[in-house]
Amino acid sequence: MDMDNASSGASSIGEQLLTHTARPKICIGPLMIGALIASACVAARAGQESAAHPGYYRFPAIHGDTIVFTAEDDLWRVGVGGGVAERLTTHPGEETHAAFSPDGKTIAFSAEYEGPQEVYTMPVDGGLPVRQTYEGESAVVVGWTPDGKVLYDTRHFSTLPDWQLAQADPATGVAAPLPLSQASDGVFSPDGKTLFFTRQAFQGSHTKRYRGGTAQNLWKYVLGAPEATPLTADFSGTSKNPMWWQGRIYFISDRDGTMNLWSMNPDGGDLHQLTKHYDWDVKSASLSDGRIIYQLGADLYLYDIASGKDSVIPITLASDFDQERERWISKPMDYLTASHLSPDGDRIVLTARGEVFVAPAEQGRFVEATRTQDVRYRQAVFMPDGKSLLALSDATGELEFDQIPANGVGEIKQLTDDGKVLRFDGTPSPDGDWIAYQDKNQVLWLFNLKKHKTRQIAASKNDEFGRLSWSPDSQWLAYVATADNSYSQIWLYHLKDETTTALTDDRVNSYSPAWSADGQWIYFLSDRHLDSVVSSPWGSYEPEPFFDETAEIYLVSLLKGGRSPFTPADELHTGDEKSDSPAKTNKPPAVLIDLNGLQQRTQRVPVPPGNYSNLTVGEKRLYWVSTSSGSSSKNNVMTLEITNKDIKPKTYAGDVADYELSLDR
């Protein structure tokens, strides 16, 4: 989990990302790598000149010229003209989904004062909240009925996991459900006889243009009628958040690809699009006296129905911003998002809360490599020279690769400038000339650091790419791609010829490619041991096959005639032959691959199958992670000497999360 914005009291990760305020900075003090013991402090935002700042505003409600919204998990009040907002609640829990009573004197909202999320009411001018529901579950305020009851969303009355609309009467304390299933938010007509509601609760995904089976849509229910009728059946996307004004229904829909405000008549016809936002989705709309307030990104917007005018409301918060206050963190390693070894294993680079640090493995100086406010760094790794780091940075507004001095001295250099979509961590080539990486569009790229040019080498319609592994001479890149039949397949890309060759076929899963130090072999894992634990399809507990410990270790000779180092000696190969390989130098061996018949040269490493992952190759040993079976499984790092005698894997380290092999193996 990315903890870059995990300051206490923040409403959400999105709240921190979208506000214009600076991100808190982490400072890590003395740190012992072996025991992962550290002390740290989070410094307050630098350059704070005023008590009023913009925030992240959610769940707005409007009545007349008054707006109530959620920020810092509390309720705030401000006029429609904006300005400095006034805080209404202060409880450490969340107060959300405010809604004005018909007379505008009371607000209902969802809060966690006694633990579970329940419905509360309080005067709009502030005062002691009054609890209205006692369900012990999630009760989400939707609005009010014309006769003064709180309309809310709950699963309390359903026997199955099903959201229903219910009414809570503040006068009597009685709560009762409406006779509807799968009903989420809604609004009554002014006469209280017709309910316009959203069928299906929010399904949890913010995926654009969702068209799945739980897409929200609008329905109409006349009280006393035998059933409700759909209003937006013509559209398979999302339509939600109905509001009533002068005989028309106003709602939110992604009919044009982005959530915007729309309107229609009470029968679902005469559709009109009101706003045309193409970046952020419109969220949480509320209507009063011909004006609609809604959330867009971090801000609140006001739309006037009569004039069609749409404008942002300039709001600031008068707050102590407690979530950005200086505080000491006793376990800063809990905020760690990435850690990688230096090329020779003498240091480790740590990424935590968007900052980059370099720590010595034994004795040495602890380095704060990045000290730039308002910039967030991801997935820092060492470059092969050990003098610089490679990390993703959002300094430009897009994710670009930066080169950072590993000793913390000198300027940070931006390497790329063509970011258009989320990128993932880069893998430098051993010679330091290339960076391999993929992006959210499932495209695999190479970036040349000398020429500052980017090259696309693969794209996938099926899934993200797996392990990116460079050959010792930096001329070949092995990577894992998902085939059309959903099996993972290993491919080889040659930089000079710009050609791609399949190392494995798509009949079984093959993954985790690793090059031998001499450049003559590629090792990989493959799920080829398909022996079902279930012996037969008979019996109440044996309905179908179950495969466990399917992975085996394989190697491929890159040239014809290669003899596996695990093959026993014979009369022709006694094992006493003198090696004719050149003396070891700092220059890596040139990797030559005979592509003809490459897949047919696959051989199995003679070790038992298991649940294996993360295979790497040292100078004289293989390493991999073996996961035990069962609900309480553990990971062990295994090692195997590359030899043809006494071939037996051993446990190198037990009960670990993962491991990494340094560049010098």
Percent in helix: under 10%
Give the overall average pLDDT.
88
The helix/strand class is mainly beta
Poorly predicted regions: 1-50, 578-582
Report on the biggest sheet. 6 strands, mixed
What fraction strand? 35-45%
Instruction: Give the radius of gyration.
Output: 31 Å
Q: Which descriptor suits the 3D outline?
A: elongated
Beta-strand segment tally? 53
Number of helices: 1
Distance between the termini: 29 Å
Strand order of the largest sheet: 3-28-7-6-5-4
Describe the 3D structure.
The chain is mainly β. Helix content is 1%, strand content 41%. It contains one helix and 53 strands. Strands 3-28-7-6-5-4 form a six-stranded mixed beta sheet, with no helix packed on it. The chain is elongated.
What's this model, at a glance?
This protein is an all-beta fold and 665 residues long. The chain is 1% helix and 41% strand.
